[in-house]
Write the structure tokens for this entry.
Amino acid sequence: MNTSSFDMDALLARHQHAPHRLVQILREIQVQRHWLSRQDLTQVAQALRSSLAHVEGVASFYHFLHTRPVGQYRVLFSDNITDRLSGSEELHRHLRHLLKLEPDTVRADGRVSVAATSCTGLCDQGPAALVNHQRVITRLNNSRIEHMAALIEQQVPLDQWPAEWSRVDDQIRLANVKLGAQPAPGQGIAAAIARGPQGMLEEIKRSKLRGRGGAGYATGIKWQLCRNAAGSTRYVICNADEGEPGTFKDRVLLSSYADTVFEGMTIAALVVGARQGLVYLRGEYTYLLEPLQAVLVRRRSQGLLGNTIQGKAGFDFDIDIHVGCGAYVCGEESALIESLEGKRGTPRIRPPFPVERGYLGQPSTVNNVETFSAATHIAVHGGAWWAGIGTPQSTGTKIHSVSGDCERPGLYEYPFGTRIGRILEDCGARDTQAVQVGGPSGVCLSALEFGRRIGFEDVPTAGAFMVFDRSRDMFEVARNFAQFFAHESCGFCTPCRVGTELVVRRLDKLGKGYGSSEDVQVLYELDKLMHSATHCGLGAAACNPLRDTIAKFRPAYEQHLKSLHFAPGFDLDAELSQARLATGRDDSGAHLETLV
Ligand SMILES: Cc1cc2nc3c(=O)[nH]c(=O)nc-3n(C[C@H](O)[C@H](O)[C@H](O)COP(=O)(O)O)c2cc1C
Ligand code: SF4
């Protein structure tokens, strides 16, 4: 790529030399330069009146920012378990072999590097890869890999690669509300204006809508807290980080129903009194940036964004898109806000919560993409209508991203309260051994539990539904998830930074057949420690898959053990259920030393 025409000063001026634009500035420089040299970082630091150490510290945090030279072509294979199940590891090796590349190195001629990344959000059409953080390649197979290697050797520009390779299908298999007929642009806003901010807030509360990002916090209460918090200005933030492996519903909502999502943000702005909205779009979805910006431009021209929205004096609101740089932890709302402010994505100590002190210290409501979509439908059809769908504590519908061992992967939208078994029947799953609901942070269900129901009362979920048939080794599934958490730990607190790594090491030892029952006990100890002593939800959830699979698929572990004998008096089941109740904090990590 020719970078000679790149005007760094113009880029910095476009971002008004604002320190909180740092991550976007670095990302955009890298698009031009491929990597961030010390010279570039120094220039940025001077322009932002910041220190080089700070700018380097931020750049080094994000997986997709490079402070060392990288290949002209940078291929990242999606390393989610469902990509692995469909052969991604063999394809990865095959490409490296064709290109004569060692793992995680740049070829001596600087042409290419090939590595793995956590999950590209394309689990329904994998194996998938990301090239130069811009272009996704779906449905990889040997012939595509061989063709790719040839294109790289011939230095064919990415925009001349076959368009078909980057086809991303929505794969909507079952639509209900949010994936069904959409309101006309502006319909939800008109209904919200007619009710007024307080009336619209009451409607959201009447709907009993709960956030779709995982924790299930009541949206009406969140908006009310933000509306009532002291502050000079307010923000509406859409969490489109969608980093949980196995989740791809927000990708489809943003690809095909962005109007409804932006409309939900605008309705939230009316309720809380915000003038500015921000979408935090995960780096893996950069290919959606241009289409999303086109929707924003159209909505401005339709009077649905900008000043005096739909003719209502004083209703001014606009939306900006911030592209993430490959860090799962930035999906956690306070880390997301840090990243929006141009910093490393380290989760904040809470309270204060973002509704009191969020983006730039001002009250901010952070909601998931699907939550905003739901808000638009509620504005149009009313809160009582929504509350009439689903179950008393889990109203409305939920979109599931179904992948893994089934005939029809894709999106399925059901009212809350739907049986796990029903989803398995609909997606054509056969001989199913386990389902991982909610991604690695969620819960692993065995066949005995397929009568359980989706909902906050029983099986909560952020949206991933990964199916494993009886041919799969659940130990390897747990190992893949453990690697994911170790890779994504932000390193801020010792129990998570060290603990996730220790879990991987012990599992690797078991995987090689050198493990013993003592290793299983150490894993159990690590689970207990990390569940209670980590700073944010990532560390707390990191052992969930381990705990579930040891408890429910013990034979998968036993076949990796020399002998499975626990210490006298050690009751694994009792200890595991006690671990679930463990509370209390200890950030020292001292306990870990005994486990190394
Ligand atoms: C490690 C971690 C990652 C998260 N990733 C996401 C994410 O990708 N998308 C999301 O909406 N929420 C994610 N969350 C939850 C958010 O912190 C937050 O609860 C959510 O965005 C609130 O939106 P809601 O109220 O609409 O659910 C994550 C939480 C943790 C602890
Ligand atoms: S728990 Fe893990 S991800 Fe969360 S702050 Fe600690 S090190 Fe970072």
Q: What stands out?
A: The first strand starts at residue 73 and ends at 78.
